Amino acid sequence: MDYETPQFFRVMQYAARADRDVVDMVSGNPDWDPPDGLRDGLRDYAEADADEYQYAPSRGLKSLREEIAARRDVTVDRVVVTNGTGEANHLAMTGGLDHFSGDEIVLTDPVYPYYAGRANFLDAETTFVAAGDDGRLDPETVRAAASDETSVIVVNSPNNPTGAIYDADAMAEFVAIAEDHDALLVSDEVYDHFDYAGRFASALEHDSPNVVATNAFSKSMAITGLRVGYAVFPSPDGPSGDLVDRAATRHMLTNVSGSRPAQYAVERALQTTSPEYYAECRRRLERRIDTFCAALDAAGAEYNRPEGGFYVMARFPDFAGSFENVYELVDEAGVAGMPGEAFGESRSDWIRFALVTPRVEEAAERLGNFFE
């Protein structure tokens, strides 16, 4: 697979050119409102003094970093606010390649394409480890694939695209593998608020110099356009202490700083949003998962019901997950999903659908009619 070319836009552009109505189940853009406190923060910021419209501190607003640190039970000097989780992952993976010996990045298959694209961009050797039938990585298969040439291992929980979640035991094993091979575990936890199984465990539960956790508010607050993410690096006083300073320097050289009003609004939302907001988001998605999976059953499809996140992967009889077949779904069914082949070899017969649309029921009906 050509991971140097953005794969999502291929399908999105094809769907946009279609001469019929199409339900977009490609992009991971939440369709619900952000927390009220987020909007209130933006409104209040509009009246701020002139100096509040200047550069923010490069590592992020101190008060926001303190809020993040308190919630993640880490010291504030470990937190760097980034331009979404994408930049956080980039800084972590780049830092891991520089700091640790070896030039190999271990990724799961199926893989979120931007991880693989980033590995290509960094000119790293890449090893893919196939997930099991349940969509999860078996830590033992990761251990068998890792070696002293490994410098970075990337895991994502809840997972995009499989919806798998790694519990405390699995995460402990991933951390141990990274430590045993003097590598960095990069744990992308951007979907942590969307845990339906109650099994999610953060890599930060392990106070390890071999762990960076990345996250953002893009999904949990439905604000993908505001681009506020963060990375939590190992303690600057430990053996991997240079990681956070390197990341902060690269962030500054690339972006100077992040958006001050976006960070201000996120901080306000963190301080004022009740747990019920996130609970309602989960309930909404669980209803959509029920609806969509029922339609997949009716269509005779194989699928993994997601434990977390908001994606469903499905395999339809005699209908591989190729770009050509996805284009046929756009043209004939009016539903746009992502081909499994964009995520690697192990799910190349599957198609991924994003349930962040109020038209899930309509899409399910269209797919049922197409495959009947």
Automatic annotation (TrEMBL):
Keywords: Aminotransferase, Pyridoxal phosphate, Transferase. One of its GO terms (molecular function) is transaminase activity. GO terms for biological process: amino acid metabolic process; response to oxidative stress. It holds the Pfam family Aminotran_1_2. PROSITE patterns: PEROXIDASE_4. Its cofactor is pyridoxal 5'-phosphate. Residues 1-243 form the Plant heme peroxidase family profile domain. Belongs to the class-I pyridoxal-phosphate-dependent aminotransferase family. Homodimer. This is Pyridoxal phosphate-dependent aminotransferase. It comes from Haloarcula rubra.
